[in-house]
Design a protein that fits this description.
The protein is an alpha+beta fold. It has one domain: Cytochrome Bc1 Complex, Chain D, domain 2. Helix content is 31%, strand content 8%. It has a two-stranded antiparallel ribbon with strand order 1-2. Strands 3-6 form a two-stranded antiparallel ribbon. A hairpin with a 5-residue loop joins strand 1 and strand 2. The longest helix is centred in the N-terminal third of the chain and has 30 residues.
Length: 229
Amino acid sequence: MNGVVIFLGLFLTMALSWYGILFKNYQDFNRLQPEKLMAGGSYPGGRSGLANQGQEIYKANGCAACHTMQVRANTNNAAADIQRGWGKRNSTLQDFLYDRNVFLGQVRIGPDLADVGTRLPDRNYHLLHLYNPRATVSGSLMPQYPFLFEKHKIAGQPSPNALHLPNELAPENGYEIVPTAEAEALVHYILSLHATEPILEAPIYPPPPQTNAVESAETTTSTNSAPAK
């Protein structure tokens, strides 16, 4: 009899945990609707088809293993997230309403990307960072992704899509480095990451004062905090 009671107790505990952690959050997310903005329009507005393709490439290359997408304004280190310039408000489920994949992440070997399209809107910067991260961020721990690029022999005029490389990374004369369609899609997705609209769940407050403790944009910080709510 005691064994049956213990089994039922464990089963009930696991069932309630599954409901509270997974099923209820899934239901709540499915009930979300775009939020009407006071200035007109709604948020979020969805991503383009190219950005959605880039999201799949982001997933396939395991980018979420080193980057988060959750600016946190409800934890002890919230001010640091905003001071770093990673976002103007905390991230919420609303930000991912139209996304097929949600990459909240847990470990910050690289910077948070929730609002990277706002703070780094330069296409060539991101392409160069993918090709050789140390060319844009000294001491970066990010791996290189040379398979997302091709070396072409220049025939006539250089390609308008070719990377603007520093001399030490440039190929031999007569050749150029051109991003593949996958690289262009991935950067398009990165540039689509914005979280600047003040919404009911996450208003934008005046930024906290700067301190000497603010970390650089590329940091080696691990966090085990819960996903953004």
